[in-house]
Design a protein that fits this description.
The protein has about 280 residues and is α/β, with parallel strands linked by helices. It is built from 7 helices and 13 strands. It has one domain: 3-Layer(aba) Sandwich (Rossmann fold). The two termini are about 20 Å apart.
Length: about 280
């Protein structure tokens, strides 16, 4: 077991997966995620991104007391497992429709010793049979696909296509299902392109949610924000005065103008157990 990476001390629990021989099948990789947590990914398929890191960080930062967490369209499990690293006492339900992604997520959950508080469900979260009407969560996370079908080059791997294009629901579906399964006072955190912010706002209204805070994300200093992070709550859980008030935070900058990692984003990475 290695305790450091380029001078950075890995924090957090050491899962049993780090012990003994680790077999990584051809075509897969086992990559650092949070602290000693690792994640299985297809080398040629979808791989976790900055958007996933930010979604997990944003949601867990503003709901640090969450006891129950739902991850919609969870993919290979990156958002949920980063959140699980931060919320050590929380129980998780994740829902993903792609069988390959579910298989990878289950292997990663076993490696990271999460199976005792983790339920990985294979299904479409829009299907009422996937989530019981009685199931509610303090925090719902979502990193939805950004583009309607037919609006761009879909990619060379089916796993990538479903992560980028709206094959099984759009931001409106994410907001609706999140709203249906939020516990009293619960929060839905998601990421979506800044240029499509109107779609997020419309989805929130349709789901009877209120966007309470938003943070634009600038990938290089001096350039426009490409995505924004959103926190939503049910309108019925908020006083009337909050229904039309959105706190827009200062942009989060990923890289400085010279290309170096921005100091704040280095601190974000440290907060989710990733090297700065």
């Amino acid at each position: 077991m290695t305790t450091h990476f380029r001078g950075w001390a890995k924090p957090g629990p050491v899962p049993p997966g780090t012990e003994g021989d680790i077999e990584v099948p051809p075509g897969e990789s086992l990559d650092a995620l949070s602290g000693h947590f690792r994640i299985y990914q297809l080398r040629a398929g979808h791989r976790f991104s900055t958007d996933d890191v930010l979604t997990a960080w944003y949601g867990t930062t503003w709901v640090p007391s969450a006891r129950t967490v739902l991850d919609l369209g969870s993919g290979i499990g990156s958002v949920g497992m980063i959140a699980a690293w931060r919320l050590t006492g929380a129980r998780f339900v994740t829902v993903e429709a792609q069988a390959d992604s579910v298989a990878l997520a289950r292997k990663s959950a076993a490696y990271n010793s999460l199976l005792d508080r983790y339920s990985i469900r294979h299904g479409d979260f829009r299907d009422e049979a996937t989530l019981g009407s009685h199931e509610t969560f303090d925090l719902v996370l979502g990193s939805p696909p950004y583009f309607p079908q037919g609006t761009g080059i879909e990619g060379d791997h089916p796993q990538k296509v479903a992560c980028r294009f709206e094959l099984r629901g759009d931001i409106a579906d994410y907001a609706r299902v999140a709203g249906e399964h939020l516990a009293l006072g619960g929060v839905f955190a998601c990421v979506f392109p800044e240029e499509q912010r109107a779609r997020v706002e419309a989805a929130a209204v349709a789901a009877k949610l209120v966007i309470v805070r938003r943070r634009p994300v600038v990938f290089k200093e001096g350039e426009p924000a490409l995505v924004s992070l959103f926190l939503m709550m049910r309108a019925g859980d908020l006083p009337e005065a909050m229904h039309r008030r959105v706190w827009e935070e200062p942009p989060l900058v990923i890289r400085s103008a010279d290309g170096a990692v921005h100091p704040e984003y280095s601190a974000v990475k440290l907060a989710i157990g990733f090297p700065p």
